[in-house]
Amino acid sequence: MPKLFGLGGYLSAYRRKITWPQSPLEARQYALLRRAAELVDLGRLKHTLTRRIDGINAAGLIEAHALGEAGNMIGKVVVANR
């Protein structure tokens, strides 16, 4: 299954229905991001999230930082406000 690279916050921005595209280039990027989001929803693309830490607080941030500093983390760590 292909991995999803380099989209960062853009997929979540798409899901929030932000007000772009502003230019033809942004329109093309928007269409590609929309399609990528659809493929993720269908399970055809796989994200690189390997760890989710709930709660943006000191303990969660310390844990996320420690995971990154350990040097053996593969994938992404997300600290979510839930």
Low-confidence stretches: 1-5
The strand count comes to 2
Helix content: 40-55%
User: How would the global form be characterised?
Assistant: elongated
**Can you write the helix and strand succession as a string?**
HHEHE
Multimeric organization = single chain
Taking the sheet with the most strands, its summary is:
2 strands, parallel
Q: How many discrete structural domains?
A: 2
Q: Enumerate how many helices there are, as a single number.
A: 3
Distance between the termini: 29 Å
What strand line-up does the widest sheet have? 1-2
Strand content: 5-15%
Query: What is the averaged pLDDT score?
Result: 76
- The assigned structural class equals alpha+beta
Radius of gyration, taken over Cα atoms and rounded to an integer in Å: 15 Å
Describe the structure.
The protein is α+β, with helices and mostly antiparallel strands. The chain has two domains: 1-47, no CATH class; 48-82, no CATH class. It is built from three helices and two strands; from the N terminus they run ααβαβ. It has helices at 10-15, 24-42, 58-69; strands spanning 49-54, 76-80. Strand 1, helix 3 (58-69) and strand 2 form a beta-alpha-beta unit. The model is unreliable at 1-5 (pLDDT under 50).
